[in-house]
Write a structure and sequence with these properties.
The chain is 31% helix and 22% strand.
Length: 402
């Protein structure tokens, strides 16, 4: 390791997560290749993310229900009717009792219910360019939730409190397709066990496809898994084909009638020839840039902005003047796109459109990393500067600068 990072009191990004390893260390040596174990001897390192004392608060006020919550022991889930009330609330007393009986409490996508984890998943997704979600596991001592299995996404295991003993095995089917079948194994099927105990403050990265299991011993355990759902090369090629199909009529044409029912060398030769022609068209810089553009656009539109008290800025819209200071909301990644006579700015959860003539104004706003005053916006007259900025505040991109 080189260029070791200083520890931070609050974990907010990927750099904090893998400290003391650098981003370069991780990218070159571990990502999509092999596990990484970080043992810190610092039990408090991840406690800014969550604590056992906060879990029933999350359950009571935020009400994770349905697929967002599981109560499970040795791969067997508890009947949801035992702990979910008809009004959508949770029967905490039943959950407490189940935990005392050896059941693990699992909250899936817990970032939807807890801001520190929402912040971490958001910043990780921005850095990795791969979707990141968090699950929580609270396991009593001397218990197991799941049998040996592998995940079809990469996992960062964060031990927050207590400890957990892990067993990792050789990957017989390395790097499975994301969202493909996830098998459950018998131990005799698995080879070359590696045993690891994670204590509070430790972290382990497990690439997809590596079989693993975990048990508690003489301590209960609170751990988080940050699941990274990678964009694969097959996804990128598919997106490049989709982009090319907008401009290449050959990609939009139908296959021959009965192509599945006809087993002839002639038809196979025709399909092979056609595929070579089409792939030669796709493998160019224009298609590559088009695929990147489509991924970026979909990513921005799907993301939701952080909750940051934006109603206060909405209440101040009527006070906006040419001298008012504005700034993009925190973690707001945006991009301007020009399409014919239309210009649009794409950002987390929304798209704002206008005539092509406002492109310089939108580019000024998108590229501005700090605060600016309304009158600094180029090209537009004063009335339209105010009109555009009010629209971008209402749409969720801008807020009033303090």
């Amino acid at each position: 390791m080189n260029n070791l990072l200083e520890k931070k009191e609050v974990i907010t990004n990927f750099e904090d997560l893998i400290h003391p390893y650098t981003l370069e260390d991780f990218n070159q040596q571990y990502w999509d290749k092999k596990p990484l174990l970080i043992q810190r001897q610092d039990p408090s390192y991840y406690q800014s993310l969550l604590s056992i004392s906060k879990i029933d608060e999350i359950l009571h006020y935020n009400r994770p229900t349905g697929t967002s919550i599981r109560v499970v022991k040795n791969q067997e889930p508890l009947d949801k009717a035992r702990y979910e009330n008809k009004d959508g609330s949770l029967n905490l007393n039943q959950i407490y009792a189940s935990y005392s009986d050896g059941y693990t409490l699992v909250v899936n996508e817990i970032e939807r219910f807890w801001k520190p984890l929402k912040t971490l998943c958001h910043t990780m997704s921005e850095y990795l360019n791969h979707k990141t979600m968090a699950n929580m596991y609270l396991t009593p001592k001397n218990q197991k939730a799941l049998l040996p299995h592998y995940d079809t996404h990469d996992v960062f295991v964060i031990q927050v409190e207590g400890k957990k003993h892990w067993k990792l095995y050789d990957a017989e089917y390395p790097t499975p397709l994301v969202h493909s079948f996830q098998p459950i194994f018998q131990r005799e099927q698995l080879k070359n066990i590696r045993e690891i105990t994670l204590n509070a403050g430790d972290m382990m990265y497990i690439p997809r496809g590596i079989p693993h299991e975990a048990v508690t011993t003489d301590e209960s355990s609170l751990h988080l898994t940050l699941g990274v759902y990678s964009v694969q090369w097959v996804d990128f090629i598919t997106k490049a084909l989709q982009n090319m199909a907008q401009y290449n009529v050959e990609l939009r044409k139908a296959l021959p009638v009965g192509f599945l029912n006809t087993d002839t060398a002639d038809l196979s030769d025709k399909i092979e020839t056609k595929l070579f022609e089409l792939f030669n068209d796709v493998l160019n810089q224009e298609s590559i840039e088009g695929a990147k553009h489509l991924f970026a656009q979909e990513s921005r539109i799907k993301k939701r902005p952080m909750a940051d008290g934006h109603f206060n800025s909405l209440d101040q819209i009527d006070t906006l003047t040419l001298d008012s200071g504005l700034i993009k909301r925190d973690n707001m990644n945006c991009k301007v796109q020009e399409m014919g006579t239309v210009s649009r700015i794409i950002f987390s959860g929304n798209v704002i459109r206008g005539p092509i003539t406002i492109s310089p104004a939108l580019n000024f706003i998108a590229s501005n990393e700090g605060s600016f005053q309304v009158h600094e916006i180029p090209v537009l007259n004063d009335a339209n500067k105010l009109k555009l900025t009010k629209r971008l505040i209402r749409g969720g991109l801008l807020k009033m600068a303090e």
